[in-house]
Amino acid sequence: MRRTSEMTEKLAADRADTALFHETRKAVAAKARGQTSPLRAIDAVEQGLGLAFDEGMKREREIYLECQASPQREGLIHAFFAERAVAKVPGLAGAVPRPIARAGVIGGGTMGSGIAIALMQAGIPVVMVERDRESIERGRANVEHVLDGNVRRGRLSAEARAATMAGLYRGSTDYSDLADVDLVIEAAFEDMDVKREIFRTLDRICRLGAVLATNTSYLDIDAIALETARPSDVIGLHFFSPAHVMKLLEIVVAAKTTPDVTATGFALARRLKKVGVRAGVCDGFIGNRILASYRKQADAMMGDGASPYQIDAALRGFGFPMGPYQVADLAGLDIGWATRKRLAPHRDPRERYAGIADRICERGWFGQKTGRGFYLYPDGARVGQPDPDVEAIIDAERKAAGVIPRSFTDDEIVRRYMAAMINEGAKVVAEGIALRPLDVDMVLVFGYGFPRWRGGPMKYADMVGLESVLADIRAFAAEDPLFWRPSELLVRLAETGGTFDSLNNAA
After folding, report:
1. Bridge partners for 250 per DSSP
2. Which residues are CB-neighbours of 461 under 8 A, at least 6 positions away?
3. Of 135, 125, 124, 214, which is closest to residue 173 (Cα–Cα)?
4. Contacts of residue 240, Cβ cutoff 8 Å, sequence gap at least 6
5. What's the pLDDT tens digit per position in 191-202?
6. Reported pTM
7. Cα–Cα distances in Å, from 50 out to 21, 47, 53?
8. DSSP for 71-90?
9. pLDDT tens sequence across 108-161
10. Distances (CA, A) of 443 to 83, 91, 439, 450
11. I need a surface site. Which of 60, 405, 433, 494 has the fewest CB within 10 A?
């Protein structure tokens, strides 16, 4: 066997293939999204090929030490251990998960079909219930569409696809078919009256001991649970779309949810190969509550002069795979519109409200699914183009509000966006909606595209310095004191030299 140091002829030939390194860098850069170490690894290989073996090893060591000194190393290490720590929930020691042999899913839309597929991929037979035959046929078609895509990509054989549908999927319009399941996940329309009626029905139909779960993104699970005679069996299982792909599962513990039901949620997350994070009940739980805050700040910047396209580009430069307006178009602008209308009666009259997204929705522009939203999607394109008509709507809204537009740097956009995210994250931790800052970090990393190599927003705040974040918030408060009220937890930690990480260690 030849020693690596003796293979000089082959190494010299490889070094001549500059196109190989160019193409490899392009491919890795697209996946790494701002992470430096994968590209530096390629540098180490390429540079080493032009040196004697000992010199090449020395250069590789130098590059390795540069990566070791990078703040990205700290962020990645935090994310690695936080991903494992989220499953260690205080108060669950000794709680035994309930067995899940059969499951039901209510709703065959995008979310319901995705949840059904996630369960089926884990070998759990699923009964999907819809309100009528036409709806259940659409639900079945949604499931088959995903499985057919897996066959085309070589991830699933045609035989396995057929066996999955035959052995693990059943569609029904009759709730009584849920009588013997161990778990029901409701994924119906985001309307409280609809969900209350469903849970009253489940209470009558499902066997005692079955876990009754809702996939609601925002609504009060305590109120939903009280529609049953067994609120201790009710829990939130908030999947993220597409549910069969996204790794995050928010496990929302209601006031009367028992520890064994909570433990069942975490056991299911592991079985589905997802990262389960415990959340408490509030509007939006952990992720969507924080999303609402930083999206408000993005909207405020858009109202003051930044374009949605500049905001999206600045956040992609920070490391997000997509900006907030690209994400909104992908999810569907009608979803956020429905939430804003639901919350309108409770909105503080002093709160600044940007109506730009509402004006877009009023035109029926709901994002990718309608061919336009904040962006244009001609001929079904997946990547949007800036829309001059949207820019005209923004200009009109600014004029109506008496705003004289100003310019924003990308750095200011990122600082404001991150300050809003961190401040709301601190409030979520202080209120116990998230047990620890690391829970916030993992929700944002696995559910909202926060760059893993930055560790998550709370870890990022520690690395930037909490006193710096607080100084930004206090400066921004001069223009909008209602929105920029600093979290008491953030103030206490910043003024005492503390860190969010110290709270992870104390939990």
Report:
1. 238, 277
2. 418, 422, 469, 500
3. 135
4. 246, 248, 249, 287, 446, 447
5. 999 999 999 999
6. 0.93
7. 14, 6, 9
8. HHHHHHHHHHHHHHHTT--T
9. 999 999 999 999 999 999 999 999 999 999 999 999 999 999 999 999 999 999
10. 10, 20, 6, 9
11. 405
